[in-house]
Structures are given as C-alpha cells and as structure tokens.
Write a structure and sequence with these properties.
This protein is α/β, with parallel strands linked by helices. Helix content is 32%, strand content 27%. The longest helix is centred in the C-terminal third of the chain and has 14 residues.
C-alpha cells in the first residue's frame, strides 16, 4: 500500500532556520501533491502564525496546530477538533510558577498572546535574535498576561512558559509533570515549556 498522507513539522524541518520554505522543499511538496499524497501541517504554531509560503499552497488543506491542540481546515479556517486545557490545570500552572522569573504565551482560537515586555524584547527572556521577527509578528502583546490567562481559562488551547534557561526549564518540567496529571509537556526550544491537554474536549 502506497503513502497517502504526510504530516510535516515546520520550524527547522520543512522551514529553514530563517523560517522560510526553501526551493528544494517546495519542489518536494509539489511533487508529493502531484503523486496524490495529502500534505498536512503539524506544528507547535497556532493557526495565525502559519507562514504564507505554506498557506499559499492551496493543496495543503489541513493543519494540526498548537502542538496538536487544534485541527483546522485551512480553506475555511474552521476548527475541526480542539483540545482545550482544563481550568484546574491552568490554575495549577499559575500557582506553581507564581513569583518565578518566567512569563507566558497563551494560545486561544488560533492566536498567540504574550506579555508585552516579552514581545518588545524577546532576547531578554532567552529567545535568540533570529526569533525576534517571528515573535513580534505573531504574538498579540498583553500588559498582564497572568491576569489575561485567568480571565480566559475556559478558552485556552495551550500555554508556553518562557523560562530563562535549561536548568529552570527542567526543574519546572518535573514539578508540573509530577503534580498536574491532565497535561502533556514538551519543549522545542531552550526557553519554552510547551503545555497542552492530554485528551479531547469538543470545540
């Protein structure tokens, strides 16, 4: 039986280190499409931050976004499935990180929200200079992100905790994993703990 579908991660896989789709990968995607293979996006990015170079390939119709928290039809932007976090897990995340030198990103309805001071100066919070344009162009700045998260607890697809280093990240990872049982935690870059819900809740 031949391959019928391929799910592609974006950052530093399908996209290069500059967040662009190189010509070689574009040709490979187009070749697969010509062979009748469905190409599906599978990314930690929310819907609103999927690059135009990908979205402009009309044959790519479906995207798994926010680390699996939401699946969209790219032609209509309809949410087909959504995995929202529980309010109790969000309460616990805020409680275990209260007073720590961290900030947050919250993904709601296909958009990403983050603390304004982090959006203004991502490098101060551990991001690389190369990530500045991506963060500043895809994050909606919020003056008080903790309060914003509390006010939108029932809507949140996933939360990123922005940490200052690997040691703090690993320590927090262990604490949250040991004490919050309905979350899935991963990390794709040094300064982020990426947290989402383990099971399915309806859109």
């Amino acid at each position: 039986m031949g391959i019928t579908a391929v799910a592609l991660d974006l950052d530093q896989t399908t996209l290069n280190r500059q967040g662009r789709l190189c010509e070689r990968n574009r040709r490979a995607i187009e070749y697969a499409i010509q062979k009748g293979i469905h190409i599906i996006v599978a990314s930690g990015r929310p819907l609103s931050s999927l690059p135009a170079e990908i979205r402009n390939i009309r044959e790519i119709r479906y995207a798994i976004t926010s680390n699996g928290a939401a699946i969209y039809d790219l032609h209509t932007e309809e949410c087909l499935k959504q995995y929202k976090m529980t309010e109790s897990s969000i309460d616990a995340i805020l409680r275990y990180t209260e007073g720590l030198d961290v900030t947050y990103e919250a993904f709601i309805g296909g958009k990403a929200y983050a603390q304004k001071v982090y959006v203004d100066d991502p490098v101060r919070f551990g991001a690389t200079p190369r990530a500045i344009p991506y963060i500043q162009s895809t994050r909606e700045p919020i003056e008080d992100i903790r309060n914003f998260i509390k006010e939108n607890q029932c809507k949140i697809e996933s939360i990123d905790i922005v940490v200052k280093g690997e040691e703090q990240k690993l320590r927090l990872w262990r604490i949250l994993e040991d004490n919050i049982k309905d979350v899935y935690i991963t990390s794709s870059v040094t300064q982020l703990l990426e947290i989402s819900y383990k099971g399915l809740r309806n859109c």
